[in-house]
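We modelled the chain as a single entity of 108 amino acids. Its sequence is:
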Amino acid sequence: MLKTLALFVATALAEIVGCYLPWLWLRRDGSPWLLLPAAAALALFVWLLTLHPTASGRVYAAYGGVYVTVALAWLWWVDAVRPTRWDLAGAGLCLAGMAVIMLGSRNG
């Protein structure tokens, strides 16, 4: 489970970086050269998704919970905006949902 969680976190970081760099270019007058590492990060994101051993729909659903949590950490560390208790509660709910999806019975 720890390996899967680490893979989810790496996948989320790749997706966030792949979206953040074009945002810097468009909204913060960054260099268009930011699009090259952005494209590489998004390609890494897609490749990392293929490394998960279960059905893709289940992976995407569970990944969403981790993505929300990593996005809030990004908000804090990169954008210097401290998450509220409601943000943290929402992240906790998302992680609980991810755990139910990934650890739940597959018998129906």
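As a brief sanity check on the tokenised model: Residues 20 and 38 are 8 Å apart (CA to CA). The longest helix spans residues 2-27.
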